[in-house]
Amino acid sequence: MNRRDFIDKSSLLFPSVLVSPKIIGDLDVKKIKTGNKRISSPYVISTWNVPEANLIAGESLDKNMNAIDAAIRGVAYEEANIKNTTVGNGGSPDRDGNVTLDACVMDENGNCGSVLAVENIVHVAALAKDVMEKTPHVILAGKGARKFALDQGYKPENLLSPESKIDWLDWLEKGNYNPKINVENHDTIGMLCRDKAGNLSGACTTSGLAYKMQGRVGDSPIIGSGLFIDNEVGGAVATGLGEEVIKTVGSFLIVELMRNGLNPQEACEKAINRIISKHKGKPNFQVAYIATNKNGEIGAYSIHNDFSYTFYKNQTNQNIKSKSVF
Q1: So what's the architecture of 42-324 in CATH?
Q2: φ, ψ of residue 311 in degrees (nearest 5)
Q3: Burial class (CB in 10 A: 0-12, 13-18, 19+), 243
Q4: Is residue 172 helix, strand or coil?
Q5: Which residues are catalytic?
Q6: What distance in Å separates the CA atoms of residue 223 and residue 5, rounded to the nearest whole number?
Q7: Which is nearest to 112 in space by CA: 22, 227, 238, 256?
């Protein structure tokens, strides 16, 4: 998968062009409650080079939005970005030509929500938050998740873009019914936010593995694998081949390693090496992690050297190349 083209920078002035008003919301509606707590510098860290999404979340935090809403608002940009073929609208389909989306969210109180294999709904991170807040459940899947979305007022859309359809038909013509797996085929956007109250929350959203078997779900919507937050310790999020992340419950592992004294960088490295230890030689897949702790330290590590992350703090938004094993 080639890295997508950057969106015209003028879209930064009008983010609602790509993100629905339902997701953007009013910055004055859901402010954090700091009470007598010390105000801390908010920041955002996201997987991959996603300057627009990261900036939206960061500026929302600067305007006093809480961490969970800022994360959902940020990732919504990529969910609506037709040029991003691995998240939301325009995502690569399964081998039968169906685009299915997965997402999860987790807030500072340990509340979480998740949706799996959702068709025709763009903003699945926001939908995961609705599951968290409006149902007695943590996970809704497939037709049930879609029905819930429609009941909540989400509008159905055709998520298969003309470009993704052409690529799928080309893949189909070759008669290769194995999912496409390579080091750049996983471009989940995972985002961790710390707000002015010092609270951590996160979101993770994806269209999953290109040309996967129908019904396949990776790590992205699985709490503890694709995303995990413990507001007393820190948070972590994963990207890459989900099957390998699930096997080690990667994001939870990183947070537990931080709980036991490792800093975010050390914890990410140990989690990646846990995966590598199960394989002989150089793996032909990519897995990468980002993490942060309550002290404001961040870390990132990947198997292969093509991974980068985006970091926003104090009105500075930058893409940073991650350290890697290979």
Answers
A1: 4-Layer Sandwich (3.60)
A2: -130, 130
A3: middle
A4: helix
A5: 188
A6: 30
A7: 227
